[in-house]
From TrEMBL:
<dbReference type="Pfam" id="PF13560">
    <property type="entry name" value="HTH_31"/>
</dbReference>
<dbReference type="InterPro" id="IPR001387">
    <property type="entry name" value="Cro/C1-type_HTH"/>
</dbReference>
<protein>
    <submittedName>
        <fullName>Helix-turn-helix transcriptional regulator</fullName>
    </submittedName>
</protein>
<dbReference type="InterPro" id="IPR010982">
    <property type="entry name" value="Lambda_DNA-bd_dom_sf"/>
</dbReference>
<dbReference type="Pfam" id="PF17765">
    <property type="entry name" value="MLTR_LBD"/>
</dbReference>
<dbReference type="InterPro" id="IPR041413">
    <property type="entry name" value="MLTR_LBD"/>
</dbReference>
<feature type="domain" description="HTH cro/C1-type">
    <location>
        <begin position="15"/>
        <end position="86"/>
    </location>
</feature>
Length: 291
């Protein structure tokens, strides 16, 4: 039986509390006394630094009140949140929600799929706000395996990163990228954290990768950073790919991931890998015709 997913207000409170407990008094110019037992800052210290009352700040951490943009900015400043942390806090409070998040995923997939197909040597995928896979190109399937072979309720990037054996085998040093994906999901998801689909994804992760539950239970956030990854597909020499990401204009809550070969040699190998399944299909068709 899955644990209910907290609502946005509770998520905001837990997020603020986690960062309060990480700070040391010296980080904000306070002096710690030998008798101090509280890990991190006290609530009254954050309230004082933010210019709000102690009772109100306590209620904020408990998810019982909402904060204005201005007050939440002051709290974030007191907690030394970076840009990603402030953006995440704002979204949890209901601000800066991306436009177009209610659009039909089928329409978005149909619009973006020709863009994905325009990269014949670069694996690319379209994700919705829950990181479910909406569309992908042939190089993506050739490298990581076809998402259609994964049950629909597990066709999610977070699940693939931690529970799909092929991806973890092909992607060398997969853990830093996987952790970054979880952090980025939390940073940009906002109210999607309380959607039933998010709870379903977390339940599948709990079933299939319980040893990593601290990843999706963590309150850390970060942007998905550009990076170079090494992949080692079966039957192919290793390749280096450069990861980039961007949002479709039609739905800024969605995300496109693109893995671009870094050298001409990598591009040639990626093309050969992409053409391999096509040749196999053509060969099967020839055998059937001959029979």
């Amino acid at each position: 039986m899955s644990t209910p997913t907290p609502g946005p207000s509770e998520e905001l409170g837990a997020f603020l509390r986690a960062h309060r407990e990480l700070l040391k008094p010296a980080d904000v110019g306070l002096t710690a006394t030998p008798r101090r037992r509280t890990p991190g800052l006290r609530r009254e210290e954050v309230a004082s630094l933010s210019g709000v009352g102690l009772a109100w700040y306590t209620w904020l951490e408990q998810g019982r009140v909402t904060a204005s943009r201005q007050v939440l900015t002051s709290v974030a400043r007191a907690l030394r949140l970076d840009a990603a942390g402030l953006r995440h806090a704002m979204r949890l409070a209901g601000y800066h929600e991306p436009a177009g998040s209610g659009g039909a995923p089928e329409g978005l997939a149909a619009t973006v799929r020709p863009v994905l197909d325009s990269w014949p040597a670069s694996p690319a995928v379209l994700l919705d706000r829950h990181f479910d896979l909406l569309a992908w190109n042939t190089p993506w399937s050739a490298l990581w395996g076809s998402p259609e072979s994964v049950p629909a309720d597990r066709r999610n990037l977070m699940w693939l990163m931690v529970a799909d054996p092929r991806l973890r085998t092909v992607l060398h040093d997969w853990e830093p990228l996987a952790m970054n994906i979880f952090q980025h999901f939390r940073a940009q998801a906002g109210p999607a954290l309380s959607d039933p689909r998010t709870g379903e994804v977390y339940a599948r992760l709990e079933e299939d990768a319980p040893e990593l539950r601290h990843w999706w239970g963590c309150h850390s956030v970060a942007e998905l950073t550009a990076r170079t990854v090494t992949v080692r597909p079966a039957g192919s020499a290793p390749m280096t790919l450069s990861l980039s990401s961007f949002h479709p204009v039609d739905d800024p809550s969605a995300l496109i991931l693109l893995f671009t070969p870094t050298t001409e040699e990598d591009r040639t190998r990626m093309l050969a890998l992409t053409e391999r399944p096509l040749r196999a299909v053509e060969g099967q068709g020839g055998e059937r015709a001959a029979g």
